[in-house]
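Thread title: Can someone regenerate the structure for this chain?

I was given the following input by a collaborator and told the matching structure tokens would be attached. They weren't. Posting the sequence so someone can regenerate them.
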Amino acid sequence: MNESLVQKDFRLRYKSFLITENGLEVKHKSLLRSGEYLLPYENVGTRIYKDSRGIYGLLFSSAILGMISVLMYVLRNEGEDVKSSASLFYFGLSLILLILFLITYKQNFYLVKYGNVDPIEFLQHKPSKAEVNAFIETLITTRNEFLLNKYGKTNFSLSYQQNHQNLAWLSNNEVIDNTEFNNMVNKLNLEMQLKQPNKITFDFSLN
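Best answer:
Regenerated them for you:
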């Protein structure tokens, strides 16, 4: 089982994730900040969200300056009165802007809950796509087992409505599907009826 994951990138960002009995332990470090925290399984989602961000003006400017550099080089070779340093100057500016773009460019890779809330950020494909995917699969499996054990059993110290709300919460958070929800509600109805045969129960099953 992939119960831990360590990630690093060229920007000196460091992230480590450890699956524990009570939640996901996260540690992170960069040039500007660092920290660690334990994220309860209730706040761990199952959906992947990706996006890419960068200052594309830097990339566009780099391309323009690069073309100017090439143009000056061509004109100089054709005998035009162009100093060799001019081509190198624009090429240097183009390279600097390209490096700045690469530094600011970021591919975001998150594990989120429904509605893209409570994001957990991972470094994409670090150390490899297969290792990240395997870790996330183990995390989701562990999370589902924990939540199912915590909220999926009938608690006779709670009311029927509270037990039903627990099952609905599991369904809404994609721990169980609609079929499993209906089966668990039917089981809840039966257990409550056997425990309190003189009380009326309600069927909140999904159709």
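The chain has five helices and seven strands.
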